[in-house]
Amino acid sequence: MMNWDIVPQVTGDQQAVWQEAADTWRLPYWDWAADPSVPSVVRGDAVSDLGMAAYDPIFWLHHCNVDRQFAIYQNNNGKDQWLTGATKGTDPTPTDNLYPFHTDTKFNHWNSDGVKGWTTLGYTYPDLAPETDSSGTAPLELVQKRLTEKYGVLRRVLHEVGSTQNIEGLDNDYVINIIYNRFPLNGVSYSIHFFIGKESDIPESPEDYKLSVDYTGGIHIFSSNYWTRGNENGVNCENCQKQQNNHQLSKGQLPVTLALLQRALHDDKRWAEINHLGKDHVVEYMTKHLQWRAVAVPNQLLKTDDLPDLKVFFKTGRAEHPEDPAQPSKYFGYEPQWGVTKDKFGGAKPE
Q1: In a domain, 272, yes or no
Q2: Integer Cα distance of 245 and 90 in angstroms
Q3: Torsion sign over Cα 297, 28, 77, 121
Q4: Helix/strand/coil for 196
Q5: Residue 152: inside a domain
Q6: How much is the pLDDT for 119?
Q7: One domain, residues 96 and 187
Q8: What range does the domain containing 333 cover?
Q9: DSSP 29-70
Q10: How far apart are CA 278 and CA 269, in angstroms?
Q11: Do residue 189 and residue 304 come from a single domain?
Q12: pLDDT digits 0-9 by tens, 263-298
């Protein structure tokens, strides 16, 4: 994105770093924020407060990246794929005003349709830009090729391993899905951290989770400390109230195929029980080794009773990864493996 209002404020030797970061999924912020002296979402400092985070320039870049992801989705799935699936009469529409943001000095407000065409606002993104100086967008095949080259780590690894080793199950795919409630703690944010290893090896302190070799990833639930049930002293937020009163649940996903392949290929003794990506073999391994912890900001370990709506699923599926980077990967046929999760805190089980 052409972040001319932000990038020039960074020192010269850092401008290129931040410009590139604004065009990728991972900002340097997350490496910088690992320093204990820096305010952190995980540690519960001001940046984890919804009212304060809006003043953080790094969060502005996160919003730029969200806009970029919407633009890529629209480009790759058809320009008409825009805020579809809303419940009529219940959810806001694309033409509803987005208070308090106005388009002019007469206080006419923005709505979602007003930002549907990003190029009409005078900018685009390198992933979508044509190779010439024309004002259009790049061909879909070129956009897909760029995305594959930038983010297709699993795809590249699978092709390389498949060409040099006979490993079972390279066409399988594995994901962790979760269903959660944003408001079980009356607006306090929290995270679900996942590990593939022995439960006894999980660090005692949540501050050390990400230092564990078994740490596989996590999902952060950025809640709202605005008004919610039981927190009537917060700032009024009608949408937050409606979501909580309707018991609205959300979903998240963590891909783990690459983490499992790493363990299958590595000769570390701690991973001796996994040798390939065959479905039955992986399910047996994950039943024994998939662990997770729920932690509220700042670093408060949560109990089962704190998150009654939490449901963690482990799913197995199939994937096709074409050699041609201009062709997208295809994922399909996912099935829940109840045995992996049914006896664990927050684990999904057959209804």
Answers
A1: yes
A2: 13
A3: positive
A4: strand
A5: no
A6: 87
A7: no
A8: 170-341
A9: HHHHTTSTTS--TTTT-GGGSHHHHTT-HHHHHHHHHHHHHH
A10: 20
A11: yes
A12: 999 988 999 999 999 999 999 999 999 999 999 988
Contact 158, 167 (CB under 8 A): no
Name, in order, each residue with C-beta under 8 angstroms of 123's C-beta and a sequence gap of 6 or more.
1, 2
Could you write out the DSSP letters of every residue in 70-128? HHHHHHHH-TT-SS-S--TTTSPPTTSEEEEEESSTT-PEEEGGGGS-GGGGT---TTT
CATH of the domain at 223: 2.60.310
183 and 240: one domain? Answer: yes
Number of domains into which the chain is organized: 2
Segment 61-84 shows an average pLDDT of 84
**Separation of alpha carbons 252 and 178, rounded Å:** 5
pLDDT one-digit tens code per residue, 169-204: 999 999 999 999 998 887 788 999 999 999 999 999
Answer yes or no: do 200 and 55 share one domain: no
Between CA 296 and CA 310 the distance in angstroms is: 14
Contact 250, 180 (CB under 8 A): yes
Q: What is the model's pTM?
A: 0.81
Quick one: 107 and 252 in the same domain?
A: no
Question: Above 70 in pLDDT, residue 164?
Answer: yes
> Which tokens belong to 5?
């209002």
Same domain, 31 and 109: yes
- Which distant-in-sequence residues (6+ apart) come within 8 Å of 25 by Cβ? 65, 151
CA–CA distances in Å: residue 261 to residues 202, 265, 294: 21, 6, 25
- Quote the CA–CA distance of 249 and 251 in Å, as a whole number: 7
Token match 């989705």: residue? Answer: 73
- Whole-angstrom CA distances from 258 to 31, 170, 261, 276 are 21, 10, 5, 12
Asked if the model's pLDDT at residue 340 lies above 70, the reply is: yes
- One-letter amino acid identity for 251? K
